[in-house]
Design brief:
- By secondary structure, this protein is mainly alpha-helical.
- The chain has 2 domains: 71 residues, no CATH class; 64 residues, no CATH class.
- α2 links the parallel β1 and β2.
- The longest helix has 22 residues.
- The termini are far apart.
């Protein structure tokens, strides 16, 4: 299945994906992660930091699915507006959720420092985008 099309930035910018040996025997673990995209690999790294016996499996190559098609823009906010989440789950739960999302950026920034090359993790206080061409 083709998850994307067009000219993607990451596959031509980043060196060839890492390859790992095929799982050839039964293994025991506490956590099995299925999928070697950005979410799976970050979770595997985080669990390893907590000494959780983890195995990550990927059918194809690491990071070539929808991860390869992402924009690289990280936002702490969810797809749903905070006010909508408050209406749906209550103020305490919605605000807690948003705070966890914000805290996740700190974790991502920390993990970015582990990488051998800079990923240009830059924090910005605001995000501005043009509503129409005349605003650029």
């Amino acid at each position: 299945m083709e998850l994307y099309n067009g000219n993607l930035f990451w596959p031509i910018t980043v060196a060839s994906p890492l390859s790992f040996p095929e799982l050839s025997a039964s293994k025991c673990c506490d956590v099995l992660i299925i999928g070697g995209g950005i979410s799976g690999t970050l979770m595997a790294r985080m669990l390893a930091d907590y000494h959780v016996k983890t195995i990550l499996i990927e059918k194809n190559s690491i990071g070539i699915g929808s991860t390869a098609a992402n924009t690289g823009l990280l936002q702490f906010s969810n797809d749903a507006m905070l006010i909508d989440l408050i209406d749906r789950f209550g103020k305490e739960t919605a605000v807690y959720f948003y705070k966890l999302c914000y805290k996740a950026l700190d974790e991502l920034e920390k993990y970015a420092t582990y990488l051998p090359e800079s990923v240009h993790f830059n924090r910005a206080e605001n995000l501005y985008y043009a509503g129409h061409e005349g605003h650029t």
